[in-house]
Amino acid sequence: MGVPIVASTVSGKPVRMFFDTGAQISYLQDDCLSSFPAEGSLTDFYPGIGQFITDTFRTPIRLGRADYQLRCGQLPPLLGMTLMLAGTGGIIGNEILRGRLAGYFPRRRRLVLS
User: Fold this and answer.
1) Which residues, 6+ apart, have CB-to-CB distance to 46 below 8 Å?
2) What mean pLDDT, rounded, does the chain reach?
3) Residue-level pLDDT at 1
4) Residue 68 contacts by C-beta under 8 Å, 6 or more apart in sequence?
5) What whole-number distance in Å separates Cα of residue 95 and Cα of residue 107?
6) What would the 3-class secondary structure string for the chain be?
7) Mean pLDDT throughout 32-50?
8) What pLDDT is stored for residue 31 in this prediction?
C-alpha cells in the first residue's frame, strides 16, 4: 500500500505498526492499552469512517533503540480489522516527529529519527 511499516516493542511484545504522518496520535489495537496512564478522550477522523472518539493512554513504545512515550488510542472496530488484515497492530502518528528531524529512505527500507 506504500505506507511504511515500523517494528516496535510494546510491553515487551513486538508489534508491527504503520507510520502515518496524517495521524494526529498513535493507535494500538491491544488490550494492554488500558493498563497505561489515561490521557483523556480525543475526537479524530478517518476517511470512509468519519469522526470517532477514542480514549487515549500515555504508552511506552520502543522503536529501534529509542524509547518514546506516545499518546495512543484504539481505532473503531472496522478500521482496527484493516490493521490486522495488513499484519500490523497499530499506527505511529505524527506526534513522534515533534522536535525531531526525520528521513525516510523507501528503497533502503529505512526511517531515521534524530
Assistant:
1) 52, 75, 76, 79
2) 92
3) 54
4) 60, 61, 62, 96
5) 24
6) CCCCEEEEEECCEEEEEEECCCCCCEEECCHHHHHCCEEEEEEEEECCCEEEEEEEEEEEEEECCEEEEEEEECCCHHHHHHHHHCCCCEEECHHHHCCCCEEEEHHHCEEEEC
7) 93
8) 87
